[in-house]
Amino acid sequence: MKKRFFVTGTDTDAGKTFVTVLMLEALKQRGLSTLALKPLAAGCEQVDGELRNDDALKLQAAMTVALPYQQINPIALKSAIAPHLAAEEEGRTLSVDRLAGLIRGALMTPADVTLVEGAGGWLVPLNHRETLGNLVKELELPVILVVGVRLGCLNHALLTAQAVAAAGLPLAGWVANGIDPEAAKVQENINTLKSMLPAPCLGVIPHGPQADKEALAQLIDIDLLLQ
Asked: pLDDT band for position 208 (50/70/90)?
């Protein structure tokens, strides 16, 4: 078995990393080897003289395959702003070709399942011509969508699914992640997405404590991805 997916979200802070960690745990519980990449990250902090991203560190801790941090997160940017703007601040240039090359190098590491997590949402710019969506199209990866359940998520989720389809890529599944404790009509919103999104719901993660990842991982129907 060798499966690879790209994880995107309806927006920044939809919970991509949290859900990706849960999927990694669910895969590990099934005895599968896992690799996770966060090729591009902004808002990194200095740790022992090098820039590190908290989300990438969480992925590194959750996956089963050993890989140097620099291959998990090869482009680490300091400012917590749009990646292409953070890169410009540092005199750097982002491109699909460069990122795709870095990712393909890391993908040579053997693993049953690899999850590549994006930055922000589907159309986050890499420069003034290319977006993360262009990168995923270049890599030809099926997509997992993390829906941050809050007011506006229906529009965001359906627009993202439409953009994925327009890129000619399959939407492998989606996860509803409760991020707003005051969100109204949560189940009704999820039911609407189940009827309108062209992919199966892999799980519903309620808003609440996140400490017991082993238990929360059981809310993910990971077998839907392995078919």
From this structure: confident
Residue 118 domain-assigned (yes or no): yes
Residues labelled as active-site residues = 38
* SS3 assignment, position 45: strand
Find the CATH number of the domain harbouring 44.
Answer: 3.40.50.300
Range of the domain at 35: 7-226
pTM of the model: 0.96
Q: What are 140-143's contacts with CB under 8 Å, separation 24+?
A: 140/169, 141/4, 141/5, 141/6, 141/116, 141/169, 142/4, 142/5, 142/6, 142/169, 142/170, 142/171, 142/172, 143/5, 143/6, 143/7, 143/8, 143/169, 143/170, 143/171, 143/172
